[in-house]
Fold this sequence. Notes:
By secondary structure, this protein is of the alpha+beta class.
Amino acid sequence: xxxxxxxxxxxAPHPDLIPRLVAALGERxxxxxxxxxxxxxxxxxxxxxxxxxxxxxxxxxxxxxxxxTLASALGPPVVPQxxxxxxxGGQIPFDTGAIVLSLRRLDRLRRVEPASNAIVVEAGMTLAxxxxxxxxIDRLFPLSLASEGSCTIGGNIGAxxxxxxxxxYGNTRDLVLGLEVVLPDGRIWDGLKTLRKDNTGYDLKNLxxxxxxxxxxxxxxxxxxxxxxxxxxxxMVAVETTEAMLALFERASNAAGRMLTTFExxxxxxxxxxxxxxxxxxxxxxxRHPWIALVExxxxxxxxxxxxxxxxxxxxLEAGEAIDAVLAESLDQRKAFWRLREDLPDMQKxxxxxxxxxxxxxxxxxxxxxxxxxxxVEAMIPGVRVCAFGHFGDGNVHFNVSQPVGMDxxxxxxxxxxxxxxxxxxxxxxxGSISAEHGIGLLxxxxxPEVKSAVEMDLMRAIKRTLDPAGILNPGKxx
Length: 479
């Protein structure tokens, strides 16, 4: 893996490209001035800075198709982009002749089907707006991310985003019923069905979910929604060890079953970072504990979940799996608990350089992974601060490592590849994945052949050649 800035390919766009884009989309929706394109060319962690000939902002699927048709004829690379919070560089172009295709203007709610528990939305809707659209018909769209106010559903689909509710509802892939996709040659595939069963040949939609904009441009999606929970109970639980955390998870899962919708974990240093840098937050316990679990139960029935959660926690305290626990007594307290988890990714920034890993291992292997990976990075760079947190209930760890206090940031980040190699070797040995929910993009592209078989790589390349034979769609990403 590399966190280095790639070389920018310098070439002039076809002389007809910009005039024809302007004719198709209007001058205000074709941005070429450096001051206008700059916000689209910088990855949010500042790992990558790109280049392009223009940023285009189509307002309909037909206009996206016009852009794709032009690109197919005139040859510029096209990099689809949603809300732009991607963490692996997949949304950044590195070609002065490229087009960034921003989908933010495709933000309409097309239809709702309450009886089918489905909604159809355009790709540029923010995740928060999709959640609100579901709420407007008394339904829940369960995908939930810290960036939900800015990320778009098209980007979520492109990355197969995970989030905090995978334990109960699955990844984005599990929430997609159908898609509308513009192909690299400008053809439109209308697969916006809301069927729960359709065995008529290959399931084409799953080619595009998780493809990171390399196979087609998702312009709309039919999504599953669910009845809104009528009862929710939330607790913060202090835990001494990750082995105890695993035992607590097993207890909660056995007792609550499908009612267990969230089981997140946060280390003591993560709580420290948030309380230090996020105004209005405070630690959930008066004492500092090694690990905190955020546990949430929800149900579609009116009955109280409080006795269920209390029974789980009482058993965990008696068994020594938990040190202390506090249940949310109000909506405000529940929100305060969630802030400690949701603000954590941003609150690492003020602590200097952070080398990040989005990995997953079998849940039973989480304690072993956390111990071995922590030992490995601490031996490599004494004084590093491991901030491992995330989705314990589905085995997804954001194994982030903050620089030692006082170390030069650039010198620390220069060890990115070396540290990734050590952590990923442990992940692979334990039967895990080097990308749990953020995708491959550019950041992990060169690692993919090390964790995929030759057959898998051949199949993926064959799919890419078939759908995008000219290689114009998000080139250099994933493969």
